[in-house]
Amino acid sequence: MPKQVDVDEQKRVLFDAVWRLVAREGLEGVSLRTVAAEAGVSMGRVQHYFASKDDLLIYSLQRAYDRMETRILDRLKGREEDEQAALLAILDELLGENAETRDAIRVNVAFAARGQSDPRIMAVVTEGDREIHELAVAVIAAAHAGEAGVDADLEARLLMALASGLGIGVALYGASSVLARQTLDRHLQRVLPGVRI
Amino acid sequence: MPKQVDVDEQKRVLFDAVWRLVAREGLEGVSLRTVAAEAGVSMGRVQHYFASKDDLLIYSLQRAYDRMETRILDRLKGREEDEQAALLAILDELLGENAETRDAIRVNVAFAARGQSDPRIMAVVTEGDREIHELAVAVIAAAHAGEAGVDADLEARLLMALASGLGIGVALYGASSVLARQTLDRHLQRVLPGVRI
DNA sequence: CCTTTTACAATGCGATCGCATTACAACGCG
DNA sequence: CGCGTTGTAATGCGATCGCATTGTAAAAGG
Q1: Residue A173 burial (CB count, 10 A)
Q2: Is there a domain that residue A174 lies in?
Q3: Going by C-beta distance under 8 Å and a sequence separation of 6 or more, which residues neighbour residue B11?
Q4: N or C: fewer beta carbons within 10 Å in chain B?
């Protein structure tokens, strides 16, 4: 066997370049040449690790979700079993309070737009939704145990739509993340009474 | 004076082509050549009416908002003075229940993404926000007149973020518009009691 | 040692991009 | 009737695109 390199590490370097380009200029700023330049490598290297531009984009999208998951788990540090804490960590991620999270939202939306005409992208983009929804249902149902008239499924959809709407407002339309936080907290007071003040 | 044509009509033909292209393939599907082909005219004609591609895009974005406004006013037919009805019509527009509205949302988001690096686009995209927000504040405040503890400003932001989050879910992530409607109605029951059932 | 396989780098190709240029057709005005 | 302005088409240019091709350096296995 010939020269050995860390393939995952090489791919990660290229993904980092894609990430920076998408966050800075949107998906239209990504070309094999710009990715190579941003990563400081030759274009041949990019082609060596990704057979096509689509492969590079799909890989980058999957890594973007990995990165989101990592940030959420970082926030959870040691409370992975606490469903309520997990939901709040996910909401934090959706809200776009720090620059990296806002980048993630922009990357996400850019891919979702392209996903309209590319089923492979759409599949990745909607992959984790069911899991998160079920978590939200569980937490909301637990908070309203014994109460009648609370549709946890509906409330979960409402909460997630609100959070992503707020996050997109922040990341794409320049809204204030402080106001977004206040707005989400107002709703959380209603639907999860007694949580986080 | 030489040959006279209806300039606005000619521009509208080109805008319609841009609209269809963006809705179908996203902003990256728009080029001077594809617009000309979609409109069934020569490329020279496109260049004659728009000095640059950016001009074409800015114009198209503004017309896209005109179209949204027209749809909202259509829904209002004769109840233009009813602030509550106006707000509900705007929410309907944001929710993406019919195909043209979903197109509008996709067009919007595509432009917003590009607006990150183009202040002219961002200005157009955020233009009408203040007006709509103030309308929502007025309606919510009126519905809770005399009550204490209701922050109409906050509730207005919450409502609009929820509606746009739901609409983006429908238009970009393939969510069900029926569920989106139910979800919005659930929230409206809370914040505007006694409205629409 | 030497072959084989991997890891690149460099370059070329055809297509497409935005835009400039050029040519011409059509029509109102002196 | 020219004449000039405007509307429209056609074409060219330089840049950039994704991708294919080619060449080569390096290291593990026979």
Answers
A1: 17
A2: yes
A3: B49, B50, B59
A4: N
> Where in the sequence is the domain holding A166, given as residue range(s)?
79-191
Per-residue pLDDT reduced to its tens digit, A110-131? 999 999 888 999 999 999 899 9
Q: Is residue B187 part of a domain?
A: yes
Q: Which residues does A18 contact at the CB level (< 8 Å), separation at least 6? A: A30, A35, A38, A56, A57, A60
Amino acid B57 CA to nucleotide D13 C1' distance, rounded Å: 24
Helix (H) or strand (E) holding A115: helix A99-115
In a domain, B88, yes or no: yes
Question: Is residue A21 one of the residues assigned to a domain?
Answer: no
- The shares of helix, strand and coil residues in chain B, as percent rounded to the nearest 5, are 75, 0, 25
What pLDDT, in 10s, does the model give residues B97-154? 999 999 999 989 999 988 988 889 999 999 989 999 999 999 999 999 989 889 999 9
Domain count, chain B: 1
Q: Which residues of B touch A190 (CB under 8 A)?
A: 190
The protein footprint on chain D, as nucleotides within 7 A of a CB, is: 4-11, 16-21, 25-29
